[in-house]
């Protein structure tokens, strides 16, 4: 009986692409991506109702185009991640989650917990005289809010770190091992290579395409501001994101759906959802609220996708945290923001 010849590289690539494009989740995502952009254009009349000073001088068409350009760059990073990990054994991330019914209960419980945390942060921040607590400090990535009090910065960081990182970690760590939570490397050398390549690639992309005033800072401002930004954003957004989504939810998404593609899409969606209370969003009217939800999801979906891909390929949530979060974007883009708030000279 004749054996089937192995697929050639070009045929394998076409087969992979067809599988991706034929996936209903991908088709739905493409449809919603197009419809979302169309609705934003129809509802804004060429002016976005958001407090984003860093984008104030950028023409509306370019602001609308930016998320799609970012997605193209995300696809490049996904290719790099795959190429760098192609010789590694496939890691069964789903096996790190409990059986399906238990995984579903834990997922629903954690999602409800995160929603409560978002609602609490939305109320608690203003009660303390601060901006609502989201996964990003007010002014992060978009400029503005340089007059925030130092107390607000630390309150935001401590709240996020405690609510989204410490409590979920302690609860799940008492029931699951560090390996099951994607917190242990199975190949340190390769993980470090992936971190370095992704971090350098993303840093170069941001330095050449996004606005940053790092070059305007003095040596003393850089010497103090860089490590301070690393600590503040590490506590306030990097570790909460890593624990809540990529350590705990991603293995459960994969166990429940049985599909890596669906898991990647859910990872992107989850990352967008936890940023709905951003300091620049505008919920003053139903229309502005709808625009805020759509724009947040469109702008953060790609970042969530690449974080999920890196986690699935390496089985190590630290890879995305260090390769695509800690340095780029927060240290590169947000150090000037921290320097202004803390009055570093």
UniProtKB/TrEMBL annotation:
Carries keyword Transmembrane?
Answer: yes
Taxonomic superkingdom = Bacteria
Q: Which UniProt keywords apply?
A: Membrane, Transmembrane, Transmembrane helix
Mind telling me which residue stretches traverse the membrane in this protein?
Answer: 28-48, 60-84, 110-133, 153-172, 192-210, 230-249, 256-277, 289-310
Name-wise, this protein is: Uncharacterized protein
Give the species this sequence originates from. Answer: Herpetosiphon gulosus
Specify the taxonomic lineage.
Answer: Bacteria, Bacillati, Chloroflexota, Chloroflexia, Herpetosiphonales
């Amino acid at each position: 009986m004749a054996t089937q010849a192995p697929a050639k590289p070009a045929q394998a690539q076409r087969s992979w692409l067809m599988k991706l494009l034929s996936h209903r989740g991908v088709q739905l995502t493409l449809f919603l991506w197009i419809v979302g952009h169309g609705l934003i254009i129809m509802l804004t009349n060429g002016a976005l109702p958001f407090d984003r000073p860093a984008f104030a001088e950028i023409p509306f068409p370019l602001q609308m185009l930016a998320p799609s350009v970012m997605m193209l760059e995300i696809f490049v990073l996904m290719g790099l991640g795959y190429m760098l990990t192609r010789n590694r054994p496939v890691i069964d991330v789903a096996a790190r989650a409990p059986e399906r019914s238990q995984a579903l209960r834990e997922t629903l419980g954690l999602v409800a917990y995160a929603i409560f945390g978002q609602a609490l942060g939305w109320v608690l921040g203003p009660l303390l005289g601060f901006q609502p607590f989201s996964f990003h400090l007010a002014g992060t990535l978009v400029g503005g809010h340089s007059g925030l009090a130092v107390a607000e910065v630390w309150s935001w960081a401590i709240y996020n770190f405690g609510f989204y990182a410490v409590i979920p970690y302690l609860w799940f760590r008492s029931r699951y091992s560090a390996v099951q939570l994607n917190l242990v490397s199975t190949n340190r050398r390769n993980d470090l290579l992936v971190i370095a390549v992704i971090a350098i690639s993303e840093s170069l992309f941001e330095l050449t395409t996004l606005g940053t005033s790092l070059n305007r800072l003095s040596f003393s401002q850089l010497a103090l501001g860089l490590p301070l930004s690393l600590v503040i954003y590490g506590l306030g957004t990097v570790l909460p994101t890593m624990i809540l989504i990529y350590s705990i939810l991603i293995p459960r998404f994969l166990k429940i759906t049985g599909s890596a593609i669906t898991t990647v899409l859910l990872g992107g969606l989850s990352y967008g959802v936890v940023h709905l209370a951003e300091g620049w969003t505008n919920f003053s009217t139903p229309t502005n609220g709808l625009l805020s939800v759509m724009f947040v999801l469109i702008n953060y979906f790609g970042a969530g996708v690449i974080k999920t891909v890196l986690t699935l390929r390496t089985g190590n949530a630290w890879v995305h945290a260090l390769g695509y979060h800690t340095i780029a974007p927060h240290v590169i883009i947000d150090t000037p923001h921290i320097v202004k708030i803390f009055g570093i000279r």
